[in-house]
Amino acid sequence: QVQLRESGPGLVKPSQTLSLICTVSSGSVNSANYYWSWIRQHPGQGLEWIGYIYYTGSTFYNASLKSRVTISLDSSKSQFSLILNSVTPADTAVYFCARWDIPVAALDSWGQGTPVIVSS
Amino acid sequence: DIQMTQSPSSLSASIGDRVTITCRANQSISIALNWYQKKPGKAPQLLIHTASTLQSGVPSRFGGSGSGTDFTLTISSLQPEDFATYYCQQSYSPLFTFGPGTKVDIK
Fold first, then answer.
1. What is the rounded CA–CA span in Å between residue B51 and residue B89?
2. Residue A105: its chain B contacts at CB < 8 A?
3. Mean pLDDT by groups of 10 residues along chain B of 107 residues
4. Cα(B3)–Cα(B29) distance, rounded to whole angstroms?
5. Nearest Cα residue in chain A from B35
6. Cβ–Cβ under 8 Å, residues B18 and B74
7. Which residue of A has its CA nearest to B43?
8. Nearest to A108 among B46, B94, B96 (CB)
9. φ, ψ for residue B88 (rounded to 5)?
10. Cα B99 to Cα B7: distance, rounded to the nearest angstrom
11. Which of B50, B53, B69, B75 is the Cys-Cys partner for B19 at CB 3.0 to 4.6 Å?
12. What is the pLDDT of residue B1?
């Protein structure tokens, strides 16, 4: 059973860079069957897809965040990461990493989520 | 992007009730529709994919139906562990957008 776990700072100052890592265990990030994804949930709100990366390194980003976001993959560590630049308090959210199963066409495995607060 | 709506936004129900949640897309998405359950402080859990296929390990009291633009999630007999927020998601085209959620709480 694959497991995903997010890690990173829980507090980031405005205008700085948010950096999170998702570690994948009991599974390979080199599979052609998955997109490795980041999703966030603002306080009291719904789920927002940030973007995903394929094992080839190709990426897809939410247009509303595209100018500030980078997702990358480190297959040697079985990790993928999220970088969000120039954060504001509006980026305060719980950030989830998740696996999109391409044949199933759904997010079938999720991390527990990590809360990030943007505040000075 | 494809826009998703859900109704109701919240509902109150009792144990044993039959609960129905509706999800609508602003264009046809065939059967490319997933349902997730989200509890506070927990990761979302995939319940149903491709509109009506129950994910492995999900109780059979959960059911999905629909195609095109209109979809339904049904819980045939609500159990205590089912109080949660339910999200639909289209898997027709990236960005795989979510609906705003339906919160199910105890009457």
1. 10
2. 32, 34, 49-50, 91
3. 96 97 98 97 95 97 98 97 97 93 94
4. 11
5. A106
6. yes
7. A112
8. B46
9. -95, 160
10. 10
11. B75
12. 86
Q: Which of B45, B94, B98 lies at the smallest CB-CB distance from A60?
A: B94
Over 90: is that where the pLDDT of A28 sits? no
Question: What does the mean pLDDT of chain A come to?
Answer: 96
The whole-angstrom separation of Cα B7 and Cα B10 is 8
Tell me, what amino acid is at B57? G
Residue A112 is nearest to which of B32, B43, B91, comparing CB atoms?
A: B43
Band of residue A58 on the pLDDT scale cut at 50, 70, 90: very high
Rounded to the nearest 10°, the torsion over CA B52, B65, B7, A106 is: 20
| Tokens at A42, concatenated | 């603002």
Q: Which amino acid is at B34?
A: N
Asked if A96 lies within 8 A of B49 by C-beta distance, the reply is: no
Give the H or E element holding residue A115.
strand A114-118
Residues 6+ apart with CB under 8 A from A106: A100, B34, B46, B49, B55, B89, B91
Judge residue A82's burial from the number of C-beta atoms within 10 Å of its C-beta, 0-12 exposed, 13-18 middle, 19 or more buried.
Answer: buried
Distance to chain A for B97, nearest Cα, Å: 7
Contacts of B44 in chain A (CB under 8 A): 47, 96, 98, 107, 110
pLDDT band, residue A24 (cuts 50/70/90): very high
